[in-house]
Amino acid sequence: MDKKRRVANVMILLVFFLWAGFLMPADHAVADDHGEKSGKHHETKESGEGHAKSKNRAISPLEKDDDGQETTGQMAAWLLGFANLTIALSILIKWTKRFAPLKPEMESSLNRFNTLQKKFLRPLHYYLNPLILCVALLHWSMSRCRSTSLPEWGLLMMSVLVILGIALKFNLCPKTMKAKVYKWHSQPALFVALTLILVLGHSIVD
């Protein structure tokens, strides 16, 4: 149990350090830009030298790298869908049983299928989502958009859900809080809201 707790603590700290690491470079990038602007009057204005220097200049985290942001975005999207397929199936089965007039045999088949898919897919949900959050943070750092804050809200919501999931998986919650944390983490409305926020945010960015 102590080893699991250490692993969980490292994963949670990694999330916070990633957030801090991707937020801080913005100030440094701005400072570098000011430094470059102040020193431009000492440089030649010839197009050849200017082009060469722009190629050699380091790309700041705020500058958009189309290839990198597209690759990390697609990777995060596919992994997110695969890791949370078990959640989507569970929600679909739950809503089908609640709102559709099912025969007892059909309901029993759905229950068996739900148990089977949880057995094989739930471990991926536990261990892939922290990795997906790291990829999503990398993607966000390479493709930030000033026109909408929806991707940031989606990323923040994902971070909270991942941290709550880690706390549940490794028994980091106090026993008195475990039921509430599980209720928050497993709330279907949060999963649907996260999906809608990410889809709408990326549609606006695109």
Task: Summarize this entry quickly.
The chain is an all-alpha fold.
Characterize the overall form: globular
Helix content range: over 70%
The overall average pLDDT, rounded, is 75
Largest sheet: none
What does this protein structure show overall?
With 206 residues, this protein is an all-alpha fold. The protein contains 9 helices and no strands. It is globular, with a radius of gyration of 22 Å.
Distinctive features:
globular, mainly alpha, 206 residues, 81% helix
Describe how the helices and strands are arranged:
Layout: H1 2-23, H2 25-38, H3 47-56, H4 66-83, H5 85-99, H6 104-142, H7 150-169, H8 175-185, H9 188-205
